[in-house]
Amino acid sequence: MALRSLSPQELAETPTLLSSFMGRAGGRCKTVGQLLRIYRERRIELDPGEDPHDDLRVDRFMEDMANERWREELVLRIGVFGGERRVIDGTHRGIAYLACLEDGVSADRLPALHVDC
């Protein structure tokens, strides 16, 4: 596995495989940053009993990261589809990472951010 550092800006701009998320449909695949915005809008409306994809796990990931209980590196896997790079594993972790930064958690307190190339 070849790891390289990933900046929060790169993470936010990286497309995922998801074109719909938390009941919000769309035609194009969303970036991690776009998924964070959808998450912020939809999480208060979503009942945990009606969360078949366990999207609310982002809250647990955020809590673990913000409270320094997430000790290992945060590694996302990126694949190439039709010539375009997309996050294929770690989407919810990436959303949580960006949310922590947005909430004012210092990057120094968060796990190191890497991508598996």
Structure notes:
This protein is of the alpha+beta class and 117 residues long. The protein is 33% helix and 18% strand. The chain contains four helices and four strands. The protein has one domain. The longest helix is centred in the last third of the chain and has 12 residues, at 91-102. The N and C termini lie close together (7 Å). Strand 2 and strand 3 (84-89) form a beta hairpin.
Helix content: 25-40%
What share of the residues does DSSP label as strand, in percent?
15-25%
Rg, nearest Å? 14 Å
Shape: globular
* Poorly predicted tracts of residues: none
Q: Which series of helices and strands comes N to C?
A: EHHHEEHE
User: How far do the termini sit from each other?
Assistant: 7 Å
Structural class: alpha+beta
> Into how many domains do the coordinates divide?
1
How would you characterize the largest beta sheet?
Answer: 4 strands, mixed
Task: Count every helix, treating DSSP H or I runs of 4 or more residues as helices.
Answer: 4
Strand order of the largest sheet: 1-4-2-3
The total strand number stands at 4
- Average pLDDT works out at 93
Multimeric organization: single chain
How would the blueprint of this fold be written?
Blueprint: E1 3-5, H1 8-13, H2 32-42, H3 57-66, E2 74-81, E3 84-89, H4 91-102, E4 113-116
Parallel strand pairs: 2-4
Antiparallel strand pairs: 1-4, 2-3
Helix pairs in contact: 2-4, 3-4
